[in-house]
Amino acid sequence: MTNILVIEDNLEIVQNLRILLEDEGFKVYSVMTRNAALQEIGQNVFDLVLLDLTLPDGNGYSLCTAIKRKGETPVIFLTAMDDEASIVTAFDLGADDYITKPFRPMELISRIKNVLRRNGKSPAIFETAGLKIDTLKAVVSRNGHEILLSPLEYRLLLVLFNHQGTVLSRNRLLEEIWDIAGDYVYDNTLTVYIKRLRDKIEDDPASPAIIRTIRGLGYMLGE
């Protein structure tokens, strides 16, 4: 299980993050101060840290430095500070990503998963039934032959792979695609993209075996 440490002094945000992250299968630990965070990272190993910039007893910059000195744990700043100087400073100190509050939940999840993949802490290659996604190269292939997908088709397929074996409702898929694309995606547009994907990746699009329709519930990749 992937362990995530949340360093945040707003209890409501911590509670919301815990619900969101645990729903995605992550194990969540949380602290509310810089000193508590230093103690936690000194005693335990985490796969990723979500770090607020402003804490009651200090700022997140020194914490990011301490985390990076200890090892290669990826750090994502999650903060209300959206000025250029704060963002540049965070990246100069080794931050792996920088997200401003208020954040969109599914975008946060996607960024977390991308950072984990880049740092070798989650699979970079997904495969099923001869279909393969190399997320580092953003290449999709079927039985060794590359398949060209549009950005939204690729994103939709990646979402399904990230939740392989789980039924995803149409609303959930729409929310994830919209968050990443930045444009509203209508329900009938999702149907179009599912059909286009099936035409490209299925042996028999009329009887799909990879992207399955679960009647009344949504879609699922795999059995």
UniProtKB/TrEMBL annotation:
GO terms for biological process, alphabetical: regulation of DNA-templated transcription
A single cellular component GO annotation: protein-DNA complex
InterPro entries named among the record's database cross-references: CheY-like_superfamily, OmpR/PhoB-type_DNA-bd, Sig_transdc_resp-reg_receiver, WalR-like, WH-like_DNA-bd_sf
Key words, A-Z: DNA-binding, Phosphoprotein, Transcription, Transcription regulation
Gene3D superfamilies: 3.40.50.2300, 6.10.250.690, Winged helix-like DNA-binding domain superfamily/Winged helix DNA-binding domain
Ranges of residues in domain OmpR/PhoB-type: 123-223
Record PTM 4-aspartylphosphate, positions in chain: 52
DNA-binding span(s): 123-223
Record GO terms (molecular function): phosphorelay response regulator activity; transcription cis-regulatory region binding
Response regulatory domain residues: 3-116
Function: May play the central regulatory role in sporulation. It may be an element of the effector pathway responsible for the activation of sporulation genes in response to nutritional stress. Spo0A may act in concert with spo0H (a sigma factor) to control the expression of some genes that are critical to the sporulation process.
Protein name: Stage 0 sporulation protein A homolog
Lineage: Bacteria, Bacillati, Bacillota, Clostridia, Lachnospirales
